[in-house]
Design a protein that fits this description.
The chain has a domain of 43 residues. It is of the alpha+beta class and 85 residues long. Strands 1-2 form a two-stranded antiparallel sheet. Helix content is 26%, strand content 9%. The longest helix is centred in the middle third of the chain and has 12 residues. The protein is elongated.
């Protein structure tokens, strides 16, 4: 079958481009639940960071609920689309 050229002034069809891969996840530091680790988790929460903690069945994500940026980060890390007003 003969390939035809597009009409003059018409751009040829472009090949589909795969979407960019998602960014790599944030670093994770798993530590034992001792006094030093709990103190570090409290420090991170006060800095507006998100902390993961184990429950009996799944891991939970925690953030300072009084810090809008921390809550937005938590929700964004969990995959939600967030708009702070």
């Amino acid at each position: 079958m003969e390939q035809t050229s597009p009409a003059p002034g018409v751009a040829p069809p472009q090949p589909e481009v795969a979407p960019a891969p998602p960014p790599p996840p944030a670093p994770v530091n798993i530590v034992a639940a001792d006094e030093q680790s709990i103190a570090r988790a409290v420090e991170l929460l006060r800095q507006g960071e998100v902390v993961a903690f184990p429950t009996e069945t799944v891991y939970g994500l925690g953030a300072d609920a009084s810090n809008a940026d921390a809550v937005a980060k938590k929700l964004t890390d969990a995959g939600a689309k967030v708009e702070i007003k």
